[in-house]
Amino acid sequence: MVTILKKFFLLITLLLSACMHVFHSESVYESLGGRHKIAEIVDKFIVEIESDPVIFEYFKDSDVERFRSKLTEHICFHTGGPCEYTGDTMERVHDGMNMTEADFNRGVDLLINAMYSANIPHRIQNKVLAIFVPMRQQMIYRP
Fold first, then answer.
1. Of 22, 28, 38, 68, which sits most exposed with the smallest number of CB within 10 A?
2. Under CATH, which number does the domain 27-138 receive?
3. Is the alpha carbon torsion for 34, 37, 78, 21 positive or negative?
């Protein structure tokens, strides 16, 4: 009887664990691999920006360490991570840049390159883009 009860409780435990896994929806932050992977993407994105003469013009006078820190926070926060974003609004950050839609799209391509270089699967890249691309209206044509 004790053996049957042990098997029963083991079976119930396994079933509950499986159900919890089904109901737990992994955040984009978790799918990315957490803060260290976001930091890797940001570092690779910075290299992409530095290598692109058109996009680099928008960033040439930026404080790279602040950019790195705030972009890491921004991505962490918006993908469901445990971070608080302490930077300025996207409008404030992009005021005076007058970034065109074409250059915004070019920047998105650089971000995709950075994610690809960091071995982020396409389906996760698409989830990240779905979060950030709608912010484009806050970034483009800000004289």
1. 22
2. 1.10.490.10
3. negative
